[in-house]
Amino acid sequence: MTRKLRILILIAALSLSFTHAVFAAGGDGPPKDMLKGVFTEIHADSNTAVFQKDGTKEIVTLTMPQGMSASDVTMNKKVLVSLDKHAGEGMIKDISVMFLDMTLTKAITLLIVGLIGGLLSGFIGSGGAFVLTPAMMSLGVPGAVAVASNMCHKFPKAMVGAYKRYKYGQADIKLGVVMSVTAIIGVQIGIKIQKFILNSFGNAGSNLYVSFVFMVVLVLVGGFVLYDAYKLSKGKNEAKVSNLALRLQQIKLAPMMHFKVANVTISAWVTIPVGLLTGMLAATIAVGGFIGVPGMIYIVGASAVVASATELIIAFFMGAWGSIQWGLSGLIDIRLTLLILFGSLIGVQLGALGTTYVKDYMIKLVMASTMLIVAVSRGALVPGYLANLDLIKPISPNVEHFLGQVSFWALVAALGSAAIIITVAMVSGMRQANRETATQLAAQVTAHD
Amino acid sequence: MILERLETYFSAATYAQCGEHETALSIMNTKSSENNRSKGGLRMKQEPVKHQSNKYIVPAIGFGAISISLYVALLMNESKVTELFTNGGWYAILPVGSAFLFSFIHGAFASNLLSALGIEAKK
Question: What is the ipTM of this complex?
Fold first, then answer.
């Protein structure tokens, strides 16, 4: 098969899975038991409110549950209404105003979080999403709008980062496309598993499953990456291809694929599971890169620099797909998206150029420390979920609040510590490069004498 | 200073006329490197870098101005924009397209800004 034909087949497969994903019923897109529109009238006597749906302009009458009064219903403002399907048709569960009032403090917060998220993304290929969504929600953005707006900032950021790192000769486009195709299929499988768990064990069971997967993957993979980074930093060795990857590269099962930038020839059957797992994890914990980058390093055999750069290509495709889905449902608050983009487009380029000044193990170190601190954040929420499922004794509201705070601040710490490590590594790398240039210059001048 | 340089050139020319081209060249080189050092030769060598930084300033300001105007336009019309962009269906083109547009303009600004500040990738 000629090279061009193979690339054509890859692109066709990508477009097919892309189209399927966009038009597939369900998906990890917007929740179905949610209405978007405006309340136009309230009838306090019958505890009902007239609601005009967005887009179709269809008028429906919704019932307020016990404990909800007319003052809880926001009139003439676009709102998201969650419906309680179990309580009956048209029963309101929760109302949230779609667009928060943008104040200067909120805008500055978004700019700073965007900048640091971008820095991390440019450096390790993923990151930002795990803290941006909770950060937006804590500012008062409804969950679905926070996820949608974050998703819409992800793909342009990844595109700029991938372009920069391609220019530095680090991104492997072919590996990125192959991984994206399989990851998009993996997302579909991940969603099916999520739905099965949600239907079988309810919301608390689903939360516990997500946190459990999060912790197991992050602790195991993060711990291994940290150990590898520690070994490399101690031994002062250049990174070597892992033994597992070398063994897998020996399997000559057709179709064999050659990835030029990663400098790897490997059977497509090895890359497929890595891509599938990346997609499945993306559908479960929303950060596929935490398995995609280590997978490309230790299973496919790419270097940390190439793997993290290639992850940006995958993030671009996955982000674009997600944005179209959320956009079709009209849940993207473009102000949030663009305010995060303001900082993250600067951060992602800074992070990308930072990789040219550091050794391979530094990327692994940043990735591992981020993964392990994020694991703490998720772990703090597990007791609450276990109590919800009656698996342990109920915990007091004070303890639950405290654990919630631990979870949020651990995320902030993950982002902060990564930003500090990247900045210090980059500045010392730049200083060393300047010293080398000065020494060379001095040597040239001396040679003239 | 000028007299010194003139003297160097004359000496070099004399050697060159006698057929000793190598000696002529070495006189020129030694003298010129000495001159460079005495007048801050290293600084002269860095001049091209300075020029490179300068060439990024104009695009950085240009793209920055367009980017800021777009942000101001967005935030001044925020209620209209958020209303229109969240209609769903084909309106999805608006938020996705805007994210693309901003990434090109603001991305170009950020790239030129970093280069103008002298923060560039290791060659």
Answer: 0.78
